[in-house]
Design a protein that fits this description.
By secondary structure, the protein is mostly helical. The protein has one domain. The chain is about 70% helix and about 0% strand. The chain has a two-stranded antiparallel sheet with strand order 1-2. The N terminus is likely disordered.
Length: about 270
């Protein structure tokens, strides 16, 4: 399809060219992970554990919540929602950049019948898989702490694929424009880290000023936290369907942007 805008040259926009070969890219990343899983398993477990101990139990003794809810019970579903975000974003951030620029893996793959769009789709699929793995670790961890009140919490594992796709796509959009691996630090410092603190993981959002609550609505992680908190407590509402729909829309939008941005990066 060719698009023409007044005063600008005509340019072609091709829809995503995705085939079953995207699964081969996913399998390649899976195989690498299976060789390195012993070194990969520490961070996803130790960081949430330290957070639960330091904030949930340590600081939690000084925090009073409505309904006499223990603070550790409040933050546990938030950690279940937020840590998969880190896993997915890191995979298509530092991981994808390293494969693209240092290892030249992307260039080697597209020299085969695999398309650029297959590579990008496979990378995002793998980011979603990392989110699912992370959610599985943390669900076991918070269950061991006795913070899970409902069996519906098990649904958080398959559901982790959606925020994994979402944050994987968002992170890959930035990676497509990154000129050095160190520049990815700006993305994580200015975008990912604030979501860790401002998405309602550590405090109820209704305690914030009204303008801040409206701003938090635009933070993708906020909607993930809301759904996971409902699953962990068994208190699901119709509004959670709106949260899921919001994530689907954002995922689709950034997936398309990632496809076109990485085409420009890889096709000279």
């Amino acid at each position: 399809m060719t698009i023409a805008l007044p005063g600008l040259p005509r340019f072609a926009v091709q829809p995503p060219d995705v085939s079953y070969r995207a699964l081969r890219v996913w399998q390649r990343n899976r195989d690498v992970y299976l060789r390195m899983w012993k070194s990969e398993i520490v961070w996803p477990i130790v960081d949430p554990l330290l957070t639960l101990l330091a904030l949930g139990i340590g600081l939690g003794g000084l925090v009073e919540l409505e309904g006499n809810q223990d603070y550790v019970d409040f933050i546990a579903p938030g950690l279940l929602a937020i840590w998969p975000m880190w896993s997915a974003a890191a995979e298509t951030g530092w991981g994808s950049y390293f494969r693209m620029e240092n290892q030249r893996t992307f260039q080697a793959i597209v020299a085969t019948p695999v398309s650029v769009d297959d590579v990008i789709t496979g990378e995002i699929m793998w980011a979603a898989t990392r989110a699912l793995i992370s959610a599985s670790y943390i669900l076991v961890l918070i269950t061991a702490f006795g913070t899970v009140e409902s069996g519906l919490a098990v649904l958080s594992i398959p559901l982790a694929v959606l925020p994994g796709l979402m944050f994987g796509s968002i992170s890959l959009c930035y990676t497509s424009a990154a000129r050095s691996i160190s520049s990815l630090n700006y993305f994580f410092a200015a975008y990912i880290t604030p979501q860790f603190w401002l998405a309602g993981v550590f405090f109820p959002l209704d305690r914030l000023p009204e303008w801040a609550q409206k701003a938090a609505w635009w933070i993708p992680a906020t909607h993930v936290v809301e759904v996971y908190r409902g699953l962990a407590s068994g208190d699901l509402e119709w509004g959670h369907l709106g949260d899921i729909a919001w994530m689907v829309v954002v995922t689709g939008l950034f997936y398309v942007v990632a496809i076109f941005a990485m085409r420009r990066r890889l096709i000279k």
